[in-house]
Design goal:
This protein has four helices and 16 strands. The chain is an alpha+beta fold. It folds into two domains: 3-175, 2,3-Dihydroxybiphenyl 1,2-Dioxygenase, domain 1 (Roll); 187-236, no CATH class. It has an eight-stranded mixed sheet with strand order 2-3-4-1-13-16-15-14, covered by helices on one side. An eight-stranded mixed sheet has the order 6-7-8-5-9-12-11-10, covered by helices on one side. A hairpin with a 5-residue loop joins strand 15 (222-226) and strand 16 (232-236). The longest helix is centred in the middle third of the chain and has 13 residues, at 74-86. It is globular and about 50 Å long.
Length: 239
């Protein structure tokens, strides 16, 4: 048994504004959801949605997870940065070196992301969404490879990366450092078993190193767990 990646979720103070921003940034389409949340559906080979979940809490500290957006030319990178700033993004300094070719921005609610230079060979062949990039330990990549059944495509220099079978959609990558966790992550993954019993999948994930946690979600159709680095994710019922 494995789970499939259902969605990448953002906590959002203004879900509509954030959904509109990321629809433009990724060139995905807005799709209405239920329960006050908005979603994007992919226009590329990605197999999951992006959801924006309403929360009252403001962002605190640097996110552990961010997106890397690819570009095709230097002009494309420059134009992308300019257009996203017009939509409400801003440049941020997270310690990147001047000689690095990517540009670090924050979306309208302060979530960091990178606009990658066009000659990045690792992300060659990806769509606009090149990578879900995570600060984390090497071992957590092994966990997620087993959890999703996605093969490891990189395992060097304390960094790991996985990609969906068939080599489609974005990478998910992990690499040091693992920052101190001070609050619930603003971004998390939703997964669901391909088939079978929901609770059996929770048990399997626990055997791989996940732990069940309680964030006060109440009576809902999912269970909240944390991966070996303490990052929350939701295990949804099979759909």
């Amino acid at each position: 048994m494995t789970s499939r990646l259902v969605a990448l979720c953002y906590d959002a103070n203004n879900p509509l504004r954030l959904a509109r921003f990321w629809a433009e940034a990724l060139r995905w389409e807005i799709h209405d959801e239920t329960g006050g949340q908005l979603g994007l559906v992919p226009t590329d080979a990605s197999s999951f949605r992006i959801l924006f979940l309403p929360v009252p809490e403001k962002k605190v500290g640097k996110n552990r997870i961010h997106l890397d957006l690819t570009t095709t030319t230097i002009d494309d990178q420059t134009e992308t940065v300019g257009s996203l700033i017009e939509l409400g993004a801003r440049r941020v300094d997270i310690g990147q070196r001047p000689e690095e070719g990517h540009v670090v921005l924050a979306d309208p609610e302060g979530n960091e992301f990178c606009v990658i230079e066009p000659d990045n060979s690792f992300l060659a062949g990806c769509g606009r969404l090149g990578s879900i990039t995570c600060d984390g330990s090497r071992g957590v990549g092994y966990f997620w490879s087993e959890a999703l059944g996605w093969p490891l495509v990189w395992d060097q220099d304390e960094e790991t990366a996985i990609r969906a079978p068939g080599g489609t959609g974005p990478f998910i990558t992990w690499g040091p450092p693992v920052p101190l966790k001070v609050t619930k992550n603003r971004l998390h993954l939703d997964i669901a078993p391909d088939q079978g019993d929901h609770h059996a999948e929770v048990d399997r994930l626990a055997s791989l190193g996940a732990s069940r946690i309680d964030i006060g979600e109440g009576d809902v159709g999912w269970l909240v767990m944390a991966d070996p680095d303490g990052n929350e994710f939701r295990v949804c019922e099979p759909r």
